[in-house]
Write a structure and sequence with these properties.
The chain is mostly helical. The chain has one domain (4-161). The protein contains six helices and no strands. It has helices spanning 4-30, 36-57, 65-89, 95-117, 123-145, 149-161.
Amino acid sequence: MNNPTNHKAYIALGITSFFWGSTWVVSKIGTQYISGLQIAYIRQFIAGIIFIIYFLMKGEKLPTLYQFKWITLLAIIMFLLANGLSTWGVKFVPSGLAALIGALYPLFAVTIEAAITRKALRPLTVTGLIAGILGIAVVFYENAFHAAPQVMCLVFYWALLQP
């Protein structure tokens, strides 16, 4: 426990949890004033600038033109399908519910990877996924479900339609 690497990992986890968790609340507030896609654009732009500055300060090279084409394609897909739609959607659902839905991403990513690679999920992975989702449900419970029972019906209907 006194390992400096462990301390760095806990600090990184705390910072990530704070910024990821606050994203939903800030997006909910922001969509009252500007569109969700604008909020997502501002967020992505600031994050991109921070990444570029960080990696240039560490002496990393910029991507090649070929790499940049793929990065651009993935950025557009990520912006439109992930961050853009989730930020736009938070205007219509409580931020806690949006956070719970967003928390399902790791579950789908791990499940899809396991299906593609045909590897069984390790018990520790399953435990971590369940603990993470339950933790978010506990933290956001008050805000997630109190205002939108009809939204929950839509979410469950949507989840049933997914392959």
